[in-house]
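Before relying on records like the one below, remember that each one covers exactly one chain. Contacts with other chains, cofactors or solvent are not represented anywhere in the record.
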Amino acid sequence: MKNKRLKIIITAAAILLLIPFIAMQFTEEVNWTLTDFVIGGALLFGTGLVIELVLRNSQKIKYPNTLLVAVIILFLLIWAELAVGIFGTPFSGQ
């Protein structure tokens, strides 16, 4: 069961990274570099692993659903900052 979820995480991350890769073939609007794909992959895979960790330890954690929502919100905020720089940090995509 544990290996099955890991395969699902890896497959989901790869499929999500295929979206900008395919879009780059058809339009100039999407312009990702290798670094973008590596960072995106690490962020997607890392988030998937943290979610897996929370699900495995859900019996020990007092509020697992709240923690899952927090992880997803944190992922979305980091992704948005890297994409368009909503907070204006040096890591922004601007």
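The longest helix spans residues 2-26.
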